[in-house]
Amino acid sequence: MAARLRWPEPPPALRRWVPEPGGPITPPASSSKLHDDRIAARLGIALAVTFSVCFLTGLWSHVQQDPPTWLSIPARPAGLYRITQGLHVITGLASIPLLLAKLWAVWPRFIQWPVIRTVREALWRLGLLPLVGGSLFLLGTGTANIAGWYPWSFDFRKAHFAASWLTMGGLLIHVAAVAGISAAALRRRLSDDDATDGRLSRRGFLGVVGAAAGVVTVTTAGATVGPLRSLSVLATRDPGVGPQGLPVNRSAVDAGTRDVDLAAFRLRVQGRVATPLELTYDEVLAMSTRTATLPITCVEGWSASASWRGVPLRDLLARAGAAPGAVAELTSLEERGAYRSSQVGRDHAADHDTLLATHLNGQPLDPDHGFPLRLIAPNRPGVLQTKWVTTVEVR
Amino acid sequence: MRLGTVLRSAAGVAGVVLLGVAARYTAERSVEIRPATWVRWLVTGALVHDLIVAPLAIAVGWVVVRYAPRALKAPLQMALVISAVLVAVSWPALRGYGQVPSNPTYLPRDYASGLLLSLAAVWAVGAAWALARLRRGRPAPRPAEPELSRSAPTGSPATGTLAPLP
Which of A151, A380, B70, B94 could bridge to A198 as Cys pair (CB 3.0-4.6 Å)? Predict the structure, then answer.
């Protein structure tokens, strides 16, 4: 235990609000009985659950985009990524009221006098920075990201990923530090009677926070949960709005692929193949096609199902004489952009629903959806469903 | 050693390991993450919350419970909390941040109407609740939380219990 240092008396303005040396300052505005360890513990447990869901689904999304060499991402179940990423964004948004309520409940601790009395306390406060700063960062940048707003200079995905490790590290350390206080607070039996002079009771407060999480969910989750679409008036995307009834993340104008010259267009299948292919658009159309209903799921949490028709990638690979178990890198006509190419792993390359699609809901692809050819595969983030595909490099 | 102590130590050690992963990843990807900017955002977020957002929320809450009529207090608290969260969540969409002319599928809705509609629903519920409370009449004033003061020796009835930092 660190030695207790001698600190000056609180400034006169604060003196009447300091109940005991070292206790939190309690100005009248913070004297609500909702600033309470029990409430903090309850909200903390809820946040530990939601943050864990966000962390695991986020990790999964990250691994999909940067798979380690030893891992082949499974192609099935087809809707898995739609569920995990939908959960990631829904849970993150629902965490906003939980986090704000939790920080509100413990805030009087933040203004105790003296601000820091022991080395241990200094460490404690410093140790909260990764957790508090990280949590606010994750929920804030996530909320901006789903609106397509990037008011910062760092790479969103990597900065968000780094902050998630920081936050979860801070969370685990925090759990280790407060487990005792929380357990004791939760063991305390309190009556939650209504003698609150008309204010929210403890239970009422938790109910309101839960209701806030529910309202946020209902007004936003329609970006991926179909039945909520008409209620989700605050969703930043609408799964039914876009060219051919489907949203777009990168438009053909932004990618510089608005007017593809079909006469000059070739699909090349090359690399480790017996016979490299160079096919015109008509030659691709002449191949036997397959129609599959697959979701397109954006990392930003929206998703929508559509009927896609195209040539199975594995048929193209077989025609070029690629070895079984081959993997491929698909490259777009797009000249720059973080997602102009993507890797198709072993499982996806072998799946019959991994298509180089030419048609969406029965019509030729809109330029915004990747005309003339785009990749569409089961269980795959939208950013890896490469559009305007022109090269298949077999590895 | 007790099981609880073992688990707590394990959580603490795991936490430090995760912080290490964050530090290593940030250092490895420093070109993309720009660690100085990243840290500035983390610290600024915490400071803005702790020095501006939280005191403001506490002050507003204090005014409401101090001056609002008894029957309106809880409904007002409810409506204000949910409204604040809705405004925060919809802020980028409301301001049209992220809108690009080349891609109208971002932010396709009228968010001002959407927000007003949501707020109207929340305040309608609040109003109905307040009416119900007014109708039920004023229960005889009771001493504040006698149960609390009896069973929680460390707590005072008027304020919550926040233990000193461990």
Answer: B70
Tokens matching residue B10: 């394990």
What are the distances in angstroms from CA A369 to CA A39, A44, A288, A289, A354? 48, 43, 21, 18, 16
Rg of chain A, C-alpha, whole Å: 27
| Measured distance CA(A166)–CA(B21) in Å, rounded | 8
3-class SS at A267?
A: strand
Single-letter residue type at A302 = W
Pick from A30, A166, A189: CB nearest B22: A166
Please, which residues have CB within 8 angstroms of residue A355's CB and are 6 or more apart in sequence? A290, A292, A308, A309, A310, A311, A312, A313, A375, A376, A377
Cβ distance A258 to A252 under 8 Å?
Answer: yes
Neighboring chain B residues of A170 at a CB cutoff of 8 Å? 15, 19
Q: With CB atoms and an 8 Å threshold, state whether B145 touches A193.
A: yes
Partner-chain contact B33 A158, CB within 8 Å: yes
Q: How far apart are CA A315 and CA A267, in angstroms?
A: 14
Residues of A in contact with B54 (CB under 8 A): 103-104, 107, 110
Q: pTM, whole model, 2 decimals?
A: 0.92
ipTM score for this prediction: 0.91
What are the residues whose beta carbons fall under 8 Å from the beta carbon of A2, sequence distance 6 or more? A118, A119, A120
A32/B61 CB distance under 8 A: yes
Q: How far are the Cα atoms of A99, A217, A299, A376, B87 from residue B92, in angstroms, in the given order?
A: 19, 17, 18, 30, 9
Structure tokens at A220: 């936003």
Select from B158, B137, B143 the least CA-distant residue to B71: B137
- Output Rg (C-alpha) for chain B, integer angstroms: 24
CA distances from A301 to A88, A259, B100 (A): 7, 29, 19
Please tell me the distance in Å from A70's CA to the nearest CA on chain B: 19
The 8-class DSSP code of residue A2 comes to P
Distance of CA A143 to the CA centre of its chain: 10
Instruction: Select from A62, A20, A58, A3 the least CA-distant residue to A383.
Output: A62
Q: Position A195: which residue type?
A: A
Residue A298, class by beta-carbon neighbours within 10 Å (0-12 exposed, 13-18 middle, 19+ buried)? buried
Closest CA to A49 of A191, A171, A153: A171
Partnered with residue A356 across adjacent β-strands are A311, A375
Distance CA A288, CA A24 (A): 73
Phi, then psi, of A153 in degrees rounded to 5: -105, -5
